[in-house]
Amino acid sequence: MNPKEYRYTKEHEWLCPEEGKKAKMGLANYAQTQLGDIVFLDLPSPGTQVEQFKKMGEVESVKAVSDLFSPTSGKVMEINQSAVDEPKLVNEDPYGAGWLVRIELSDPAELDALMNVDAYNKYEAEALAEGAE
Amino acid sequence: MRALKKTPLNKVHHDLKARMMDFAGWELPAWYTSILEEHKAVRTGAGIFDVSDMGRVWVTGRQAGDFLDRVLTRRAQQLEAGSSHLSLMCLEDGGILDDLWLFRMNSNRYLIVWNAANVEQKLNWLARWSEANPDVNIEDVSADTAMVAVQGPAVADLKLLDSVSNLPRFGHAASKLAGLDVLVAWTGYTGEDGFEIMAPAADATRLWEVFIEQGVTPCGLGARDSLRLEAGMLLCGQDMDADTNPFEAGLGWLVDLDRGDFVGRRALVEIRSAGVKRKLVGFRVDGREIARSGYPIVVSGEEEGRVTSGGQAPTLGINIGLGYVPAELSTIGTRIEIMIRNKPVPAHVVDKRFYSKGG
Fold this sequence. Notes:
The complex is a heterodimer of chains A (about 130) and B (about 350).
Chain A: E1 7-8, E2 13-18, E3 22-27, H1 29-35, E4 38-42, E5 49-50, E6 55-61, E7 65-69, E8 74-79, H2 81-85, H3 88-92, E9 101-105, H4 117-132
Antiparallel strand pairs in A: 1-2, 2-3, 3-9, 4-6, 5-8, 6-7, 8-9
Chain B: E1 5-6, H1 10-15, E2 19-23, E3 26-31, H2 35-44, E4 47-50, E5 55-60, H3 64-71, E6 84-90, E7 96-106, E8 109-114, H4 119-130, E9 137-140, E10 145-151, E11 172-177, E12 180-185, E13 194-200, H5 204-212, E14 217-219, H6 221-230, H7 265-274, E15 278-285, E16 296-299, E17 302-313, E18 318-326, E19 335-340, E20 343-350
Parallel strand pairs in B: 1-3, 4-14
Antiparallel strand pairs in B: 2-3, 4-10, 5-8, 5-9, 6-7, 7-8, 10-13, 11-12, 12-13, 15-18, 15-20, 16-17, 16-19, 17-18, 19-20
Helix pairs in contact in B: 2-6
């Protein structure tokens, strides 16, 4: 289930707002099932400035390389080294232990450009239906 | 998107909720549960693949052997009835049109099993060269038949295959399997022992179920690719093609020049005597980065070639690949670098047979 307190992008990333203008991001469940076994993460170094909806890294599954987009603008505070060391965490627990990057938000108002869980559930269902055709 | 062709097992894949993908115009499963799990199943147990996308073409008639000797790089008529071998179809300039398995039934009946890509071009090629042999009939039965590959060390323990368990490597036989008329061959593309089984399209689902009922793991294209790469097997259209000759691809052992004329022979004799300028090598990435098809291979900042296949070797826990480099850089141990995300990543040349069964 997609957590209801998270926000989502059309590229199937999630953002979880934390206290003090911080947020964690990761891949939504839909993204990890579509990618399959994730084997390598190329994440931005702490200190890197990222921009909302712009590429900030890459996620590699056995099969393919996919771009990772930032759900928000800001500065990278921390990356999840456990996931870098063991990328299958992203498959096993995409909303928890498989988080990717913690970001210091430069403009919290940007969160309005993200989907809430209701909008995202609908968006995900449409994506699934399209894939099943 | 163009309409994809469906194998007789298409519904089975959808029922299993496989993640489907386009492979050479066919809708096929990329994986059912996980590429890594399916890969492991074949290395440690048994897996089944739908390989119906591969073309199946009968070549029959009194002149079938003579004709095949002319269009293939290995002598078809050296095969004994009931045996098979890997062979190549080359263009007149020595470029590789396809690699294929040739099965000999008897003196005037052969079966070609070739790759899914460029079927029309290959059929036209055969038709063109058969004009000189009026007593040859070429029949593409791909649409009327299905084929599965059952691969892995546990295949020997499967029931229903006892009638064929005494087949020699590369041997084949018409057989009954759970009441179905099948052609069973001791061949594969995984680096493990196993069988490839051809049946009428209408029997495909039953054939599949016979193995699923015995606990064989359904495996998709992802595992098919990682298994063959780990075993150092080439994929035509990716590791070799019309712009590649067999000697640089390391497939010189499939070219028999010491016999009468065949298509491409003159060019291949010249290529061999001149020596090849580049070679396909295996390499191992020293770090955790994954090399992928198309990535540049560099040495001292100069691009020397391209990766043709690359990925994880799940059984070995390392990252590997194949690619062309100048012949002088093809020695095992040579340090090379792969450009991954615009960064040179250290790698070194290793034996292409990254994995071999039992050792």
